[in-house]
Design a protein that fits this description.
This protein is of the alpha+beta class. It folds into two domains: 120 residues, no CATH class; 221 residues, Four Helix Bundle (Hemerythrin (Met), subunit A) (Up-down Bundle), CATH 1.20.120. It is built from 15 helices and 14 strands. The strands form six sheets. A four-stranded antiparallel β-sheet has the order 1-2-8-7. A hairpin with a 5-residue loop joins strand 5 and strand 6. The longest helix has 45 residues. The protein is elongated.
């Protein structure tokens, strides 16, 4: 089997995407978990890395071979035709051992539960030379009539027309009998023996293959555009997968953009809420704020939240506008939402306002990190351009300046993880666990901003200082994920 084994450790890459083709607020998440090359700083070993994940990248023919091996094994075990074996495996998520055990206990019940046989045996049809098809109301020769195990007989032309309509609507493995209130499934060989048009047969087989893959717990299609890769993993975990073919990074469990530490259900709720409340939150998405000291208007043109006013040189936090000098001890308060302890006793109107205030607090930070990622993509491109200039001037080689690319890649990875901590925190219940999470979130945020500050000033930042900051930021990220990544 031609497969590519990939293991997902906490490494970063030189991302080769073209930032000139991106809008200012557009973030291409697919590159923040790439793994084209290793980073030189210390990495946790696979046993300690909460994101470590082994999987195979399969081609279509490899998946077809894998599925057929299961079908053949079940056919041999139960002595049934391949078409029945496919239905049984598909209906039981390809758990062959479970199907064999159920068949051993009660084969008829297995067939009934799999919608292959009716619960009560139907009466045999009346034998005659011709038969009236109840669909087209035409009398047809008995050899032109077809039936499933339910004994509902219709002419071949009506079956063919029915199957064609179902297939064109995207139905394949779920096609049921035409009989009223009959849910007996049409097997693959029954459909293909009736459908004659090559394009319809091909479409049916493609849809059926897609259904088989989706029902298999170890398989998932890569969600990348026009990508035919199928990922195989031994466990259906909430872990990141990076497709080598199209570079798409996604969560294996749900197929969405990778979203650690937030779980799949929570991120779906969060994205739905953001879409529903986007107009309400638009006013807090502005790119400019006033300096808290001299009140001059400042535009944020980098990813770092450590701002310095160009006029009065005051250092402050973009998010809370507080003095940056105090963020070493107060950063926890900056990233932590302060709830009203008496909110339960307030009026419904006040509670609604408090709920909106809480949502906007988390949404602003979520949106800010998304914008910072887009801005840092431009910073990364500037660093690549500067490295290219230095190499052309014989001021070192690409290897000599590789640590700068590693720093930008790690910064994007850490900020990406940090962005997804805010939906997680928004839905967490109050208590000791949330307190610990917010503390670790704040620690990560502080180190990410320190790293961002140093990366944006890479040419005047000491290499040892930058690499040390990279190590600290990644360890903060790993610590948070070890404690809160639920797979």
């Amino acid at each position: 089997m031609s497969v590519e084994m990939r293991s997902q450790c906490s490494d970063t890459s030189d991302y080769e995407n073209d930032s000139d083709n991106m809008d200012d607020d557009e973030v291409d998440y697919n590159y923040y978990y790439g793994d084209d090359q290793d980073v030189e700083f210390d990495k946790p070993n696979p046993c300690e890395d909460p994101e470590y994940f082994e999987y195979e990248l399969l081609k279509i023919e490899d998946v077809d071979r894998l599925l057929n091996e299961n079908v053949e094994a079940l056919c041999s075990s139960l002595e049934i035709p391949p078409s029945l074996a496919k239905v049984l495996l598909h209906r039981h998520n390809w758990a062959r051992t479970e199907v064999e055990q159920r068949h051993k206990r009660d084969p008829h019940k297995l067939m009934v539960d799999s919608k292959l046989e009716p619960a009560i045996k139907p009466k045999p049809p009346v034998i005659s030379n011709s038969f009236l098809c109840s669909v087209c109301v035409q009398r047809c020769p008995i050899e032109n009539m077809q039936e499933l195990s339910c004994r509902h007989q219709y002419c071949k032309d009506c079956w063919g027309m029915y199957f064609k309509m179902q297939i064109e609507q995207g139905v394949s493995t779920g096609i049921e009998c035409m009989g009223k209130d009959c849910n007996i499934l049409a097997t693959e060989d029954f459909v293909l023996s009736t459908v004659s048009q090559p394009e319809i047969r091909d479409k049916y087989q493609r849809f059926a293959f897609s259904d088989y893959v989706k029902s298999h717990p170890e398989l998932r299609f890569c969600p990348g555009a026009n990508c035919a890769t199928v990922v195989r993993a031994l466990e259906s975990k909430r872990k990141r997968v990076v497709c080598k073919e199209c570079k798409t990074a996604f969560c294996f469990k749900c197929g969405m953009d990778y979203h650690a530490p937030t779980d799949c259900d929570t991120i779906k709720k969060w994205l739905t809420k953001c879409a529903d409340d986007s107009e309400t939150a638009n006013y807090i998405s502005a790119h400019t704020k006033d300096c808290p000291k001299c009140h001059v208007c400042i535009e944020k043109n980098g990813g770092c939240n450590h701002m310095q006013c160009s006029k009065c040189k005051y250092d402050f936090c973009w998010m809370c506008l507080g003095d940056w000098k105090n963020h070493g001890s107060e950063y926890y308060e900056c990233s932590r939402y302060k709830e009203n302890p008496n909110i339960a006793h307030e009026s419904v109107h006040v509670q609604a306002r408090e709920a909106l205030k809480k949502y906007l607090f988390y949404y602003e930070r979520w949106e800010n990190h998304a914008k910072s990622l887009a801005l840092e993509e431009k910073t990364s491109q500037k660093i690549k351009d500067r490295i290219n200039e230095k190499v052309m001037k014989n001021e070192g080689t690409w290897i000599d300046w590789q640590y700068l690319l590693d720093a930008t890649a790690l910064l994007k990875k850490c900020r990406y993880s940090l962005q997804f901590t805010y939906p997680y925190a928004y839905y967490m219940n109050k208590g000791a666990r949330k307190t610990l999470f917010e503390y670790q979130q704040a620690q990560l945020e502080a180190e990410v901003e320190n790293l961002s500050w140093k990366v944006e000033r890479a040419e005047i930042t000491d290499r040892g200082d930058l690499e040390n900051q990279m190590d600290v930021a990644e360890k903060r990220r790993q610590t948070l994920l070890k404690d809160f990544l639920e797979v």
